[in-house]
Amino acid sequence: MSDLDPRLKAFERLLNIMDDLREKCPWDREQTIESIRHLTIEETYELSDAILDKDMAEIEKELGDLALHIVFYSKIASETGAFDITSVLNQICEKLIRRHPHIYGDVKADDADQVKKNWEQIKQQESKGKKSVLSGVPMSMPSLVKALRMQEKAAQVGFDWPSKTQVWDKVEEELGEFKEATEEEKAGEFGDVLFSLVNYARWYDINPDDALELTNRKFKQRFEAIEAFAKAQGRDIRDMSLNEMEEVWQQAK
Fold it and tell me: Measured between alpha carbons, how far is 116 from 155 in angstroms, rounded to an integer?
């Protein structure tokens, strides 16, 4: 890439603006790595919403916000000599090269599944000092996503069911245990049901978090149709019968 590459120019512009803000803006100057953490999480969820909405303009905007956060963290860290944006970018470049030996080495990978398997094997080799295969799964990750990632990692070392039939048998077993559970046991047994369903989704290459969010959005759209129906009639939704609500719900489908 030449010095005139617009991508480099745009990134350099962002770095220069961050330098200005950190020096001259009272709010930006006060921030720490800890203080902007919750903002980064919020921006990530906003990007997720934009992706689910298939709103490319909003995706573009939210990616810019996340790019700002990466530069922000790196600028703060550079002030104490912990790391800087150069080391951040070089580190991810080195990781990508290491974990794509079929591109930058002599390993063969003819399909996406083999690429994923190679990635996990190399990752495990890099993490040999860690106590568990599951150590790389962040504890603060949302529970549904965490369940999927733990199952994926366990499967990579052979801890998995041989067939989909056995996975579904486990779902039915957990449902049975939930039905028979005492009130004190129900929360734990319900968690087992969810965990087994996440595993079944994994076998069908379904991301359970994405699937549940699609259902959340369908529910929201249909429930809001009921609210709109009540409002159009000058009624309070609380005065509608369940049968009336169900009729509008079916129409909204």
Answer: 12
Report the domain count for the chain. Answer: 3
Is 235 found in the same domain as 172? no
**Which of 169, 184, 205 is the last residue in one of the domains?**
205
Kindly state the greatest CA–CA separation across the chain: 71
Tell me if 94 is assigned to some domain.
Answer: no
Residue 75 and residue 17 share a domain? yes
- 17 and 74 in a single domain? The answer is yes
Residue of 80, 65, 67 whose CA lies nearest to 33? 80
Burial (Cβ within 10 Å: 0-12, 13-18, ≥19) of residue 25:
exposed
At 210, list the tokens. Answer: 């994405």
Residue 218 and residue 197 in one domain: no
Q: Residue 244 is part of which domain span? A: 210-252
The whole-angstrom separation of Cα 198 and Cα 178 is 16
Dist CA 118 CA 121 (whole Å): 5
pLDDT in tens, the chain (253 residues): 456 799 999 999 999 999 999 999 999 999 999 999 999 999 999 999 999 899 999 999 999 999 999 999 999 999 999 999 999 999 999 999 999 999 898 888 888 888 888 887 787 777 766 678 888 788 888 899 999 999 998 998 889 999 999 999 999 999 999 999 999 999 999 999 999 999 999 999 999 998 999 999 999 999 999 999 999 999 999 999 999 999 999 998 8
Contact at 8 Å (CB) between 15 and 85? yes
User: 188 with 232, same domain?
Assistant: no
Whether residues 214 and 200 fall in one domain: no
Nearest C-alpha neighbor of 149 from the set 187, 185, 199: 199
pTM over 0.85: no
